[in-house]
Design brief:
The protein is mostly helical and 299 residues long. The protein is 67% helix and 9% strand. The chain has helices at 16-43, 46-72, 86-115, 122-149, 153-182, 186-214, 222-230, 264-282, and strands spanning 235-245, 251-259, 286-292. A three-stranded mixed β-sheet has the order 1-2-3. The chain is elongated and about 85 Å long. The two termini are 35 Å apart. Mean pLDDT is 80; it is low at 1-6.
């Protein structure tokens, strides 16, 4: 008996470059967070301690992203026939939610400070934000380069954590300088609100994209796709029609088709025409088309 291996999709992703980038980012971020924590204890600076805990949240986000990336490289097994690629999306969803929660908390703190203004230590504020800016610039560049080589929603969610920190550092430098020369402490609150809005938008975008994938949804126009398949010669009816995203790179389609008439040569030609349409016009490479005949299949 002759056996063939015609499986079209591997259902796993080998992303060595992204893995190296995440390892490097995780080590650097952990080292910087520990440095800030130790420095905060030695100098008795609450600002340093507070920022170190913020950095530890970035460490957690990177760690979770790395675990998801490692698991996505595992091959499918008898229990997980689609593999573990979806873990990347779960990591992105959690990181996106974390960004939204952080932004809401920052907004709450900004509102509270409107009613209870606090004195600000300009030197400490400027030193922390400058060092943090340099660090976040390096990490942001590293993660951005990774995205150019391997598109990954999981890496995008980690990147937004550091973009938030980078924007925060720039905002703190600007506001601390203005406060130093004018004494207007309210500038710090206004800058915090601006940073919060930017952070919230990034978190919402990541969460929304990952939510659509987790719910097996699609951003494609399914009505248009359905109509174009219906126009293919020989197609009488389409049902059990589904299109969904597995991750940011893969879209799947599945459907049952009834034909006007049945013959072996025509059947395979129609199926192939459907697959060509989906791949060329919508980038859908993974497609399942089941042909049904009312003479044999119950409806």
């Amino acid at each position: 008996m002759i056996t063939y291996n015609f499986h079209h999709k591997k259902h796993y992703k080998i992303q060595q470059y992204s893995k190296k980038i995440l390892y490097t980012s995780l080590i650097l971020t952990t080292a910087f967070a520990l440095l800030e924590y130790i420095g905060g204890i030695i100098s008795n600076s609450l600002a340093l301690l507070g920022d170190s805990f913020h950095m530890f949240s970035d460490v957690a986000a990177l760690g979770f992203s790395l675990i998801a990336l490692i698991y996505s490289a595992k091959k499918p097994n008898k229990h997980y026939t689609f593999g573990f690629v979806r873990l990347e999306i779960i990591a992105a969803f959690i990181n996106g939610l974390a960004l939204i929660i952080i932004s809401i908390y920052l907004l709450y703190e900004a509102i509270m400070r409107l009613y209870n203004p606090r004195d600000i230590d300009f030197k400490t504020m400027l030193i922390i934000s400058t060092v943090g800016l340099l660090f976040n610039v390096v990490i942001t560049i590293i993660l951005t380069k990774s995205l150019k080589k391997e598109d990954n929603l999981n890496i995008q969610s980690a990147l937004w954590h550091f973009l938030g920190d980078l924007i925060s550092s720039v905002g703190i430098i600007i506001s601390s300088t203005i406060i130093y020369f004018t004494g207007y402490i309210v500038v710090d609150i206004i800058m915090s609100i601006i940073i919060t809005i930017i952070l919230f938008r990034g978190g919402f975008k990541i969460t929304r994209s990952s939510y659509i994938i987790l719910m097996e949804g699609t951003t494609l126009n399914t009505t248009e796709i359905y109509e174009k398949i219906s126009e293919i010669e020989g197609v009488a009816n389409i049902h059990e029609f589904h299109i969904w995203h597995t991750d940011t790179n893969e879209t799947n389609a599945a459907m049952h088709i009834l034909l006007n008439e049945y013959s072996i040569n025509k059947d395979y030609t129609i199926v192939e025409n459907i697959k060509i349409l989906l791949e060329k016009e919508y980038g859908i490479e993974h497609c399942f088309v089941a042909l049904e005949n009312t003479s044999f299949n119950k409806h």
